[in-house]
Amino acid sequence: MSDADLIRSARFRQERETGWKRLSELVNRVERKGAPSLSFDEAQELATLYRQAMTSLSLAREISLDRGLLAFLESLCARAYLAVYAPQDSLRGLVWKLLSRSIPQTVRRTGLPILIAFMTMFLGALAGYLLFFEDATWYNTFMPPDMAGGRGLGSSREDLLSVIYGGDGIGTSGFAAFAAYLFSHNTQISIFIFSLGVLLCVPSFVLTFYNGLLLGAFVALHVDRGIGYDIAAWLSIHGVTEIGAIIIACAGGFRLGLSVLFPGQLTRADSLRLHGRDAVKLAILAAIMLVVAAILEGFFRQSVQDAEVRLVIGWGAGALWLAYFLLAGRERGERS
Amino acid sequence: MSARRRRPKIKDPVKRHTLTPPEGVPLTFEVASIGARFAAQLLDILFTLLFVISFLGLLLLSNLMSGDMFMIIAVLMFFGLRVPYYVITELMWNGQTLGKRLVKLRVVSSDGKGLSAYSVTVRNMMKEAEVFMPGLYLLASSAMDGWTKLIVVVWVFILLIVPIRSKRNQRLGDIIAGTYVVEIPKPVLLPDLAVRGTAAPKDRFTFQPNQLDHYGRYELQTLETLLQVKTGQLDAGGRMRHDDTVRKVAATIARRIDFAEAIARGREDEFLRAFYRAQRGYLENRKLFGDAREDKFHHQDNDR
Q1: Each residue of A194-206: pLDDT tens digit?
Q2: CA B127 to CA B86: how far, in whole Å?
């Protein structure tokens, strides 16, 4: 049958149909096996055919009333679009970029929320500490019974010391302590503090403050028994990193909450979207710090028995973090 | 007469959203329903749990590890099936987890650019607060006191309200990440009805322009749907009903356009195909001249 005999849209379709079918084939393959399964030529073909199909679709919407064709082109283009605009970074490249540049830059950018988070924690600790000396029974009010590992108001100086310098007192290997720790209270708390920050900062503030209270009361108990130096060393070895992680998580939560509270010129949703980027990076950083803290705790806390060495490791790690935040990922022309 | 009748309002039952890729040709996606997304989530939880449990069971049976080592692996795996599983699968498969693959859903970015690693991470990190935590609390609800229960209920309520109220069924994580979930369209290329089979090289029915003035795009495409039915796949009863419909439609059209000849029994299908071709050619021509006719009420548009 001759071409001239056909109506315009049918001719239009006949001329392009092979290209569409080929595109459909390529897209199917990408969907099933991923883009790397294409050869160089095929990848190039995919891009070209995709653009042609988009043009066809735009034309067909104007000239054709063939619903079968329109529906086919719509869905073909949609699938091809998803295949062509797939994320192109490799997983490794992403991780490297995140660690080497994005995270330290984010930390420098979010100084204010971090400061607020730090102050919250600090004030909490101060309050806990002072309250303990006012009335020691506050300790029991704050502390959930399963958290302190049996160390309460009834514990004597010797009991407390034996935990601090107890070696493998709990009878676990480094690995098990590491794992047990990683999923303990603090991980849960960090996740909570971060994700609830979106509710106008309030839950993040309360939780961080409460954790400060716990810390303050706990330290006060030991100071009261005259072993303040030892507990400081014992806490420092992993605590510097770990409390840092909680503060960072809290800062992430605040970043979310602040963007909702004070959106500036943007709408609240836009503001949340914009600042969410920083918040998420802070959350990832908090997770990394928690893992490091877990390693420090699992392998060093009980095996290193000397208070001075403990202090050096703990604050050394803290100094390394600080150097990382302040120095890494500087690009030329960046003002801090 | 039907000309007095008003055009009925047709409401689209499916939420759709248009996204403009860098090429500038808008694409319309069907937003995934909340039910479908719930199913995908459930499947994911089921799969990951089954995998982890069976893996750990095998490990336990094979007796390769010490108790400590086993505990660590167990803890790590139970951690991995939460956020990391979703982030990694959605990065690897461009916005699909196993569950989404089965239900045929996909995450897309609402700005029309590709899905970024950041969006994937965010939308799944929020899952912790939106799916896992409330889920775990609901499972443990019998052990909670009244106030905690109330808080959890309010929490879950808010979480459910957000996607239902959202134009694109976005949950909180989607809103923050700037993503939404769509159904993957199925491209099926149906044969072009305007192309005649080789068996019938010439239409035996011919139509005058005034006979083609009655209908618009909507009627034409409805007729197309009827003609695209694959009669070979129908059973005897379905075949009969289909033939009956074809006969009725042919009779209605013939009456409406004042078709002079009588249509012989058994040739209704041929008549409809011929009419479809003529009508489509005519309407497409009108459209080219700036006279797009939406449906049979198009005369009313000109009056105004």
Answers
A1: 777 766 677 788 8
A2: 9
